[in-house]
Amino acid sequence: MKFTAKQIASFIGGEVIGNENAEVYTFAKIEEGVPGALSFLANPKYTEYIYTTQSSVVLVNRDFEANAEIHATLIKVDNAYESLAKLMTMYEASKPKKSGISSLASISANAKIGENCYIAPFVVIGEGCEIGDNCMIHDGVSIGDGAKIGNGCILYAHATVYHDCRIGNNCILHSGCVIGADGFGFAPTAEGYNKIPQTGIVVIEDDVEIGANTCIDRATMGSTIIHKGVKLDNLVQIAHNDEVGSHTAMAAQVGIAGSAKIGQWCIFGGQAGISGHSTIGDRTTVGPQCGTIGNLEGGRTVLGSPAIDAKEYIRVSAYMRRLPDMEKRIKALTREIEALKNK
User: Fold this and answer.
1) 49: closest CA among 15, 62, 21, 34?
2) Which entry of 158, 240, 247, 277 is annotated as an active-site residue?
3) DSSP for 208-257?
4) Angle at Cα 291 formed by Cα 290 and Cα 293, nearest 5°?
5) I want to staple 39 with a disulfide (CB 3.0 to 4.6 A). Which of 30, 52, 323, 331 is the partner?
6) Could you tell me how far CA 157 lies from the centroid of its own chain?
7) 3-94: CATH topology
8) CATH number for the 101-309 domain, one of 2.60.120.620, 3.40.50.300, 2.60.40.10, 2.160.10.10?
9) Are 171 and 207 in contact (CB under 8 A)?
10) Residue 221 CA, distance from chain mean position
11) Cα of 225 vs its chain's centroid, Å
12) Any residues with CB less than 8 A from the CB of 54 and at least 6 apart, and which?
């Protein structure tokens, strides 16, 4: 499927600079561009490539000004990265979708399956399950008894939804993620650890995307809740009875201990860790490998372990680099003081 620069600009509200009839049929990074490809420039670090790229069309921000000849046709937009995302979404939506229910799927007789669903071979859907309309459930997915899946969801190969859990509309669960496994609850005794039954569920609201091999544990009682629009990367761990506020994003290997409450529009860098029973306010940014202990007020950016304000962390880091020299100076001063004492 081919599109002209003029058609693309019309769709995203852009301005064509160059040949409006230039055609593209694929996407490419600007440094790896080929004829017939659409690329984008959003990060100034890649500006040099716009003068050498072989891509036919390049999306740029409206404030971009060239200082040399450019062979590609440009489309100026308010935000090149957002426009690219919009185009790629349109491109994906135009691809033919699989449909139908495989005879190799195991579906309980009393499960309810919505219209226009695709259910692949070796999918298992338990008793009393409800699957909404326009869902795509790929190979080897397991959906436990009583679970409910909303409309327009995609469950990729070998995703697992345990019994009674709730998934909202337009959610994406990537391969190997596990929704509703038991929380890590044990009572220590003189003989060992007695398992505490995890009787709650997981509730995932609309427009949530969950990465590969991410785990969201069911609550001990009540619900572990992932609110609307949350985006979780691969290998994230959400413990029992956690609540993650709407539109919060977590990068890979973030770990949230039990009964934590995370606010809205928060951002967590890779490998960040949040202590149990803590509250993180709205619009908090937690840096990579950051470890928080206790509550954090909203609107803060924290770094380090234990977490401190980002500006303070930068100052501390500067001092840390100077510690070897400071140690030498302290030892020298100590020797001078001892010498003065002896005199």
Assistant:
1) 34
2) 240
3) -EE-TT-EEEPPSSSEEEE-TT-EE-TT-EE-TT-EE-TT-EE-TT-EE-
4) 145
5) 30
6) 18
7) 3.40.1390
8) 2.160.10.10
9) yes
10) 27
11) 16
12) 33, 34, 35, 37
Q: Look up residue 87 and give its two tokens.
A: 């185009």
d(CA 304, CA 306) in angstroms, rounded, equals 6
pLDDT tens track for 4-30: 999 999 999 999 999 999 999 999 999
pLDDT band at 69 (very low <50, low <70, confident <90, very high): very high
Active site residue 158: no
pLDDT of residue 315: 85
Cβ partners under 8 Å of residue 247, min gap 6: 228, 229, 230, 264, 265
Confidence class for position 176, pLDDT limits 50, 70, 90: very high
Q: Which residues contact 139 (CB under 8 A, 6 or more apart)?
A: 120, 121, 122, 123, 157, 158
Phi and psi for 334 in degrees, rounded to 5?
Answer: -65, -40
Residue 169 has pLDDT above 80, yes or no: yes
| Among 247, 215, 230, 162, CA closest to 149 | 162
Q: How far is CA 299 from CA 66, 196, 254, in A?
A: 37, 36, 19
Q: pTM score, two decimals?
A: 0.85
For the chain, the structural domain boundaries read 3-94, 101-309
- Assign 166 to helix, strand or coil: strand
DSSP string, 105-120: -EE-TT-EE-TT-EE-
Give the model confidence (pLDDT) of 45-58 as tens digits.
999 999 999 999 99
Q: Collect all residues with Cβ–Cβ distance below 8 Å to 160 and sequence separation of at least 6.
A: 141, 142, 144, 177, 178, 179, 180, 181
Question: What's the chain's length in residues?
Answer: 343
Whether the link from the prior residue into 197 is cis, omega within 30° of 0, is no
